[in-house]
Amino acid sequence: NVNTAANAAHTPTSCTPSAKIVPLTKDRTTLKGTIDGFKASGSTAGQIGTAFAWYLLSPNWSNVWPASSKPANYGTPKVKKIAILMTDGEYNTLLGKQYSDGSAQATTALANALALCTAMKKNTLSSDPNIEIYTVGFQLDTTASKTMLKSCATKADHYYETSTGDGLKSAFRDIALKIS
Q1: Which residues pair with 94 in a beta bridge?
Q2: How far apart are CA 98 and CA 11, in angstroms?
């Protein structure tokens, strides 16, 4: 989720992320601390989160990350590139402004996210995807976001939808089993 500043204008400059991107790391304490610090609020620019998942995993953007966090090249033996995209909101924020679901702007945000997913999964070198994508929708109430997450997932069994904390735990447990 991306928090927007509480002002009536909702100008593009009012979009302020509530958390910083953590580059790839094996430091569990840092990861857990970052996750524990997340707060659900504001609006959702899911296409931005989708883009950063790609930026973290693709060697195309390795020059922006610290040396210890540079993503491995595609096709590196014993390396799986997996993105797990989870949202508790609708993809209805574009350029820092929240729009009503079904508006042209919200539709653009969904289309942008889906285009990013398609590009992440594309691999012309083999039948394996460049990046395998799992998606998790939590308490979503619009068909558009659910459809986008289903389409974004690499396969039908890579999409999860739940409305409870226990359902989230079950989804992530299932993903962990599939990955291992």
Answers
A1: 97
A2: 10
For 76-88, what is each residue's pLDDT tens digit? Answer: 899 999 999 998 8
Q: Is 160 exposed, middle or buried (0-12, 13-18, 19+ CB in 10 A)?
A: buried
Query: DSSP secondary structure string, the chain?
Result: -EEE-S-SS--GGGEEESSPPPPS---HHHHHHHHHT----SB--HHHHHHHHHHHH-GGGGGGS-GGGPPPPTT-TT---EEEEEESS-S-EETTEE--TTSHHHHHHHHHHHHHHHHHH--SSSSS-SSEEEEEEES---HHHHHHHHHHSSSGGGEEEESSHHHHHHHHHHHHHHH-
Phi, psi dihedral angles at 127 (to 5 degrees): -80, -10
This prediction has a pTM of 0.81
